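Page 42, continued from yesterday. The earlier attempt failed because a stray header line got pasted into the input along with the sequence. Redoing it now with the clean sequence only.
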Amino acid sequence: MSVNGISGKDGVKPGGNLQGLKSSQLKALERLSQRRISPQAGFSAEQAREFALISRAVGRQVALLIDRAGKVTLVLVGDMSAIYIPELPRSRIGSDRLRGLRLVHTHLAPEGLSREDLMDLLFLRLDDIAVLSVTPAGEPDKFQHAHLAPGLPGGEPYMVHPFVAWDRAQTDFAAQTEALEAEMAQGDTPAPVPGASMGENGACPAAVLVSISTTHREEQERNLDELAELAHTAGLRVTGRLAQRMHVINPRFIAGKGKLAELEVLALQGNAGLIVFDGELSPTQLRNLTDITERRVLDRTQLILDIFAQRASSKAGKYQVELAQLQYMLPRLVGKSRALDRLAGGIGGRGPGETKLETDRRRLRDRVARIKEVLEDLRRQRSYARSRRAKGKLPVASLVGYTNAGKSTLLNALTGSKVLAENRLFATLDPTTRRLRFPRERELILTDTVGFIRSLPKVLLEAFRATLEELEEADLFLHVADASHPELELQLKAVDDILIQLELGDTPRILVLNKIDALPLQSEETRRLSGPPEDQNRGNCLSVLKELHPRAFFISARTGEGLDALSRAIAERVIDWERFTQLHQG
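This time it went through. Structure tokens are written below.
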């Protein structure tokens, strides 16, 4: 390190543990902040000696935060064994993987970089972290540095260089950072996903999916598969996934620091700006994870809410989604940012007054109350429409089932309608009602409602109460399921559980296994599976499905296969309903 330092015009005030320091020491620290450190060679001999002497004089570790132009942006003072690094600027976060800052600090003992130093490098996404050890006489001794390298075969996310005599260290930090960012960006220009929401550069936002749970690994992987479908529907590009089974969930960070470090490496490798957790995070976990990762953190509930917000088209649907979002946000508003804690100004807001955080809470509660009033009006309107249908003495059947099971396609096939039907999760949010006509002047009201999903968030159940009330008036449920889905049995159970939760478990139902055209094409002689039981449970053979669900109707709403038998079964239910009504009236 042989380049001479150039003094800057303006220094920065030192921060950290300044208690007990003399004014001369504070001035020396401030002079240190005025130095220009070469981006190519690092410290000059004079700068290294000045840095070491100040650290030994104050008897504490000292750190410099240096930008890519060589300007010292922050001087920090710690104690003899550690330095606390405050929240750093995030101006580069989101546009580049690295922060654009490197940190150099002193050790008062002849020791190199610690594990905590390397964790700071990783979580703060520094360009480089370095340590200069100081002799008891205040002379620079040895130097060591490390930088991120998430592609290393050994699994470590960083490269640690040898601990060498300080005057023998030769590193071009500018070239190192440029090469590292170029390497990390290789192959990271993906094709946009059709229908996805684009990021700043026209590409789909990248996300890492995470499952930290007490359930077994196979279930976690299944849940991550579904989370990946949700992410795709929301317009995200999945660049990595991580699963860990834990006996006890960490109440603060949901996982330990080692697993969070592994997660950070995945995010770095995929240049992911979002981390999506399966399950629901507590307000504390959400806040802490956002702070430590410095990325946007979502949980499964937020992801589903975002999909609903994208797809809501009617007035009722938009209000219901907004209500669910506000109810989810309210308990998580605490400590969201320092800006929320400042006092509100203006007339009536000066002095002790009402804090900005309290004002935000009050406004959100007022908005929630207003939306509930609007939804109550809509609920009454729907109730009036249902009562008019009841006066017409027409039976009502509701299509229920897991999301993307093909309910809207079946509605179109049975009634000749043209309701929007897409091969996406939650394509239908608003209830749709059509008349289904049968021979001999018989009719049925057929309604299509929002699809279900496992662990349906409570905020959605409450917000969509006005929509789900359509199910309460149904005389018959057509439980539509995707026969080709590998998790068919689990999806059937999830729908049953939600109907029980809604106190609708006793409503008569017909099981309709849709999408049989997506099952493997086999002859009658080879329809029976010959593989192990785990293959049979996948539900990819029609004969096995018929054995498992002998009373179900097997159809393809897309091709029309099996619709005649289903229509006859529904018509028989209408006749039974008429007979029951006549007997009851008699």
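Notes: The chain has a mean pLDDT of 80.
Reminder to self: strip header lines before submitting.
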